[in-house]
Design brief:
Layout lengths: L1 H18 L5 H8 L3 H29 L1 H21 L3 H15 L3 H11 L5 H30 L1 H22 L19 H13 L1 H32 L4 H28 L4 H21 L6 H12 L1 H12 L8 H30 L3 H5 L1 H28 L10 H5 L1
Helix pairs in contact: 1-4, 1-5, 1-6, 1-7, 1-8, 3-4, 3-5, 3-15, 4-5, 4-6, 4-8, 6-7, 6-15, 7-8, 7-11, 7-14, 10-11, 10-12, 10-14, 10-15, 10-17, 11-13, 11-14, 12-13, 12-14, 12-17, 14-15
């Protein structure tokens, strides 16, 4: 439990750093004298690096274990946060966010691996949700603490001071983290060979599994509405388009985080007890999210406070729903491929988030800050994702049935598939 706790602490700090720009978007525009498109480039670049690192990080976790990866990740995101605090120009600030994204990318997959190693398999869904919820508590720190410190102490002191948390978790990982419980270390001969051939085989084998691909598209479709809202565009949308005060907007963002925490506990319990509800939960979350976004965007004038509260509560369910993607990939892949498969799944949501961040920024500049048109892009991405989820559901169900009936092991082939 303590080893998993160290990993989650690293992820917690990474999320604080990742989302700290979301409450400082307007200050960033003033500091670096940029428009909406250039502002969105901060988060797009950060997520581009994050998404691009997922498969390499998964391979590194499978190859070297979690400790080495978390040591490197905590060092990189701490340096990135400190560099962002000291940046005086737009270019150096972009480079700092890219460095932060690189370190951030190494955290969550490592935490998922720690959960599979240190806890029984039957507790996998609940442990994964718990890791996500505790880590996303970093959003709460960003929306409650950083937004207030920023207003009192200013840019440099706030971001440089927060980087000290990165130093703390770096020391914890370096000094105390272990990859495996004592007596359960893999034998030296079990270490996979490195090389391009291993990488190709590992990625190809994970991608061939329909469960991995369904997991990726589930993550793609469910995660991005909340990520985009909390990471960058929620605060400007609430204050500029809806006329909410900065304090009120911070409260609404906090509400999304609290909703995330509550819904995650419910989803984790439901999936652990009845895995068959995974797809229904994910699709229901997408449907409800689309409904409330449509209600807010189509409301004449500014939406009532009750509707904005409901939207933020619903957006909080997107994070737990995105975790369902890992529960499609996990039973489809053997233990030595879990990191790679998780990396593929994790690419989905962050790719969608990058597309949405860019679309909102460009559409705001083109339309003269018309948030109704800009946020309508959410429906396009949701339609694409739902289509792919429905396409892959049957093949995934067939494979999982064969595993349950003992016809094949995760990642294996049935007798019929081997003949064909």
């Amino acid at each position: 439990m303590s080893m998993w706790g160290i990993g989650v602490a690293v992820y917690f700090v990474a999320v604080i750093f990742r989302t700290s720009l979301g409450v400082a978007g307007l200050q960033a525009q003033d500091r670096f004298e940029v428009g909406a498109s250039a502002l969105s480039a901060f988060s797009i670049l950060q997520l581009l690096v994050y998404a691009g690192m997922q498969i390499p990080v998964g391979l590194l976790v499978d190859r070297f274990g979690t400790k080495h990866v978390l040591v490197a990740g905590s060092a990189l995101f701490t340096c990135g946060q400190l560099a962002f605090a000291l940046s005086q120009t737009y270019g150096t600030a972009l480079a700092a966010r890219a460095l932060l994204g690189c370190g951030d990318a190494m955290t969550f997959i490592s935490v998922l691996r720690l959960g599979t190693v240190w806890f029984p398999v039957r507790r996998g869904p609940l442990i994964a949700q718990a890791a996500s919820l505790i880590g996303l508590g970093g959003n709460l720190v960003a929306t409650v603490v950083i937004v207030r410190v920023l207003g009192t102490w200013g840019w440099t002191t706030t971001f440089a001071g927060s980087s000290l948390a990165g130093v703390v978790v770096f020391v914890l990982v370096l000094a105390f983290l272990r990859n495996h419980p004592k007596g359960h270390e893999p034998p030296p001969g079990a270490q996979r060979p490195a090389g391009a051939g291993f990488v190709r085989r590992q990625v190809a084998a994970a991608w061939r599994e329909p469960g991995t691909r369904l997991g990726m598209w589930t993550h793609f479709t469910t995660q991005f509405p909340m990520t985009v809202f909390l990471l960058l565009w929620g605060m400007p949308f609430l204050t500029e388009a809806q006329g909410v005060s900065a304090a009120g907007a911070g409260g609404l963002l906090t509400l999304s985080v609290l909703s995330n925490l509550c819904v995650g506990l419910v989803y984790g319990q439901m999936i652990a007890r009845r895995p068959g509800v995974r797809l229904a939960l994910a699709l229901a979350t997408v449907g409800v999210t689309a409904t409330f976004w449509a209600a807010v965007l189509l409301w004449p004038g500014r939406a009532p406070t009750a509707l904005l509260v409901a939207l933020c509560l619903v957006l909080g369910a997107c994070g737990p729903a995105s975790m369902i993607g890992f529960e499609f990939a996990r039973p489809a892949n053997p233990a030595d491929r879990q990191g790679t498969a998780s990396g593929i799944v994790n690419i989905g949501g962050f790719t969608a988030s990058m597309i949405m961040l860019l679309a909102v920024g460009v559409l705001l500049d083109v339309t003269g800050d018309d948030y109704r048109i800009a946020f309508a892009a959410v429906f396009v991405l949701q339609a694409l994702g739902v289509t792919r989820m429905l396409t892959l559901r049957h093949a995934t169900a067939v494979r999982e049935r064969h595993v349950r009936e003992g016809d094949l092991s995760p990642g294996g082939s049935t007798a019929r598939e081997m003949r064909t």
